[in-house]
Amino acid sequence: MSDDGHQHNGHENVPSRQRRRFPGISSRAYEHPADRSALVALRKLSGFDTVFKALSGLLPERSLRLLFLSDSVRVSDQQFAHLNDMLRDACYILDLEKVPPMYVNQDPQPNAMCIGLDEPIIVVTTGLVELLDEEEMRAVVGHEVGHALSGHSVYRTILLFLTSLALRVAWIPLGNLAIMAIVTALREWFRKSELSADRAGLLVGQDLTASMRGLMKLAGGNHLHEMNVDSFLKQAEEYEAGGDLRDSVLKILNVLPRSHPFTTIRAAELKKWSESRDYQRIMDGHYPRRTEDKDTSVTDSFRESASSYASNVRGSKDPLMKLVSDIAGGAGDLGGRVRRGFGGFASPAPPTDPSGPTGPTDPSGPTDTPPRDGG
Known about the structure:
56% of the residues lie in helices and 4% in strands. It is mainly alpha-helical.
C-alpha cells in the first residue's frame, strides 16, 4: 500500500504502516554507480559475450524452477502468508507489475537470492526467515525485488552455474583459468550490485534502522541486545583506514572469493546514501522513470560511474587508495614514501610548516613569486 492507500495490480494485502510508492521508477534511481561501471567492464571482458550467449541457451531454466517447486515451499496466501504480503507490497512500491515467484528453502545459513534467466525467482532460506523480524525482512524482500527490477537475476544465475562448473573442471588448468577469469569479473560486479539492491530495500522498507539491524544480524546473529549500530559503523571506518599497504592488498585478496561485500561496508554505504540528496529527491517523488530509460546515454552513465569512482578514491582512507590518489595528483612526497616501503603508506607524510626553516623567509614581505607546493 502506498501513501494514497489504493490497491494495484492485485497487491491487495497492505503493510502494517503506510509507505511512499514510486510509480514507474527506473532502477537507475537506486543503482550504485559502481554497479553500472562494473557491469560495463564485465560485458567488455574478452569471451564474456560468447559464454553468456552459450549459457543462456543451455542453462536448464525449467529444471531450476521444477527444483524449487519440488523441494522448497512456494510463498502464497496459504504458505508463509506474511512473506507473500511483503513481496506483493515491495512490488507495488517499486511498481514491478509481475510479482516473481518466491520460495522458502530449508537451509540454516541466512541467505536470499534472485535468480532466473527468462523470469526472476526469489529464494530465501529458513535461516534468514528465523533470524529477521518483520521490518528487517521487509528490507530483504525489497532488496531482492530490486535485483529483479534491475535485471540482475540473469547474471546471478550464470555466476552460480560457472562457480559450480569451475569446481568440476579444476583439474583442467587452462579451462579452469578461463572460467575463473569470468567468475572473478562476475563476482566483482555482483558485489557492487548488492549495494544497489540494499538501496532498493531501503526504498521498500523506508526504515533505515531496520536495514541496519538486518545487516548487523547477518554479521553477528540474533543478539541485538549485544550490538550497537554506531559501533558497527565504526568498524567499517576502522577497516577502511587501518593498516598499511600490505593490509590493503590483504583486503583485496579477502574479498575476491566473496559474492557479497562485507556487512560493515554495506551498512556504511547504505547509511551514507540515506543521508544524500539523491535519496531525498527520490522520497520527494523526483526520480528517473522507466519510460526515459531508452533515451539514457550510455556515455553519460559511464561518466557518472567514473566520477563516482574518482570521488571515492580521493575521499578514501585506505592506504592503497591514497597511493592511487597521490599518483594521480602528483604528490610531492610520493618518492619518499616509496623509499620508506610499505610502512610509508600507513599514514600521510607529515606536512612541512611553511613558516619553518624550509619555507619562504623573505623579510620584505610577499612577492609575486608563488611558493612551491609543500612550502
